Amino acid sequence: MKTKGLKTAVTLALGFGLIAAGCSSNGNGGSETPGNTEEPGNGGTPAAIGEQVDYQIIGIDAGAGIMEATAAAIEQYGLSDWTLVEGSDAAMTATLGRAYENQEPIIVTGWSPHWKFAKYDLKYLEDPQGVYGGDEQIHTIVRLGLEEDKPGVYAFLDNFEWTPEDMESVMVDIFEGMDEEAAAEKWVNENEEKVNSWLEGVPEDEGQTVKLAYVAWDSEIASTNVVKHVMESRLGYTVDLLQVEAAAMWVGVANGDVDGMVAGWLPGTHQRHYEMHEGKFEDLGPNLNGTRIGLVVPKYMDITSIEDLK
Ligand code: PBE
Questions:
Q1: Which domains does the chain possess?
Q2: CA of 28 to the centre of ligand 1 (A)
Q3: Cys-Cys crosslink for 65: which of 82, 169, 189, 269, Cβ 3.0 to 4.6 Å?
């Protein structure tokens, strides 16, 4: 079934069609067995897509909200033959990059802002059931008591706000080989005005120490390093970054082990964590508007919707 040669595939498809015809003759109507390769469903040969990618969706770290959302999508779209492969943002983008170079089919869990949209021609699969939710914001979340303990840190984090384009430009520099801290510094130097607006009304607090948690998602590596760079170079703070899993990031803020984070994807992606710890953190609101998550494929693939994976 996983043979790639065209002749073999056709032979298998014909043989399989005969077997499939015996047990399922209901055409496009809600069949949960994706084995029926001969029936062109909506927009191509859906079963062939599954076979081409070994029924795999390339995921990221298990704790990411997008992994939960994708498990829900598999359930709701009746994709029981599909596997969501765990890994990391780095592993996912490496697999995507290799497939893209060879113009091979691939399906990944994707989100914006992300450098992959600047570097490759990609598209989101339509999600008619709305499993992945709509536009979101990234929120800054701090520990209770931060305002009293470290008013400067609190005021600065409250002021921090930028755009998807800002974030993506840092991500692209890192993708192209720049060190994370150097990419953050470059962006800060090129965006004086915006950076100055974050410093407005921040009380002097030099020598302060700050602990920020983040997850190794490319988007959060970019934002967290920019925040660190500004606090160190402009405010004279010492900032420690703790790279953790998603759940630990929320727990860390709720327990007061860290001062805060700039990586709360809300209201949907991190809703579970938000509700679990509600009352034990302070939500400083969005630092970025207009994110999206979903299943992403190269534009050269001719599927358009998650429905096409059935
Ligand atoms: N992400 C990027 C995260 C939030 C930031 C979409 C991979 C998640 O799924 O939890």
A1: 137-291 (3.10.105.10)
A2: 33
A3: 269
Dist. CA 41 → ligand 1 center (Å): 32
Q: Average pLDDT for residues 46-74, to the nearest whole number? A: 94
Amino acid at 59: G
215 lines ligand 1 (CB under 6 A): no
Average pLDDT over residues 175-199: 98
Read out DSSP for 47-72?
HHHHHHTTTEEE---TTSHHHHHHHH
Q: Tens digits of per-residue pLDDT, 188-207? A: 999 999 999 999 999 999 99
- The mean-pLDDT minimum among 2-16, 142-156, 290-304 falls in 2-16
Ligand 1 center from residue 17 Cα (angstroms): 40
Q: Is the CB of 64 under 6 A from ligand 1?
A: yes
In the structure, what pLDDT confidence band is assigned to residue 48 with cuts at 50, 70 and 90?
confident
pTM of the shown model: 0.85
Residue 110 backbone phi and psi in degrees, to 5 = -130, 160
User: Is the CB of 246 inside a 6 Å radius of any atom of ligand 1?
Assistant: yes
